[in-house]
Amino acid sequence: MFDLNDCMAFVTSRSGKIFAAAMEKQLNQYHMTRTQWIAMYYILSKGPLTQKQLAEQMVLKEPSIVPVLQKLEIEGHLIRESSKEDRRVKYLELSESGRDLGLSLLPVVEQFKADTTAGIGEETLQLVKEALEKMTENAMRQL
After folding, report:
1. Residue 48 half-sphere exposure, CB side, CA atoms within 13 Å?
2. Which residues pair with 91 in a beta bridge?
3. In this predicted structure, what is the pLDDT of residue 24?
4. What is the distance between the terminal CA atoms of the chain, rounded to a whole angstrom?
5. pLDDT at residue 78 in the model
């Protein structure tokens, strides 16, 4: 008989929600949401991105990131500039304060990673990562 608790899709979804809530709690201390920080991380690590590229990196629909970007822009952490070739395309770059904030939160996120993987060896973590990547690839075929 089917047991939902043995279904990896359910187990990973449930775990992901718990991880997201715990990370949100950590970042809220810095007046930052998890989604804001993830957006900042991708812009910080990959350089200027278009809204479309950022949405793809975050695996979100482009309209979903607009409020996140608006908040970062209002707070002075994000600069949005129109492309010279196509005014509809917006490039995203972190301001100096955005870069400083993103870099200052890296240790917080690194500690979160350390706390959530405590007691698990690197080899096991690599196997889990590989299994999840393969499961994701398999699931994407169903989209």
Report:
1. 11
2. 50, 81
3. 96
4. 26
5. 96
pLDDT at position 44 is 95
CA distances from 111 to 25, 70, 101 (A): 13, 28, 16
Report the amino acid identity of residue 7. Answer: C
CA atoms 59, 89, 68, 107: torsion sign: positive
- What is the pLDDT at residue 143? 85
Cα distances (Å, whole numbers) of residue 131 to 106, 125, 126, 135: 26, 10, 9, 6
| pLDDT by 10-residue block (mean), the chain, 143 residues | 89 94 95 95 93 94 92 95 83 95 95 96 96 92 90
Tokens of 84: 């010279």
In terms of Cα–Cα distance, which of 71, 72, 79 is closest to 49?
A: 79
Closest CA to 109 of 35, 27, 54, 42: 27
Encoded amino acid at 112, one letter: F
Q: Report the alpha-carbon angle 113-69-64, nearest 5.
A: 85
Q: Which of 106, 55, 101 is nearest to 78 (CA)?
A: 101
> What's this model's pTM, rounded to 2 decimal places?
0.87
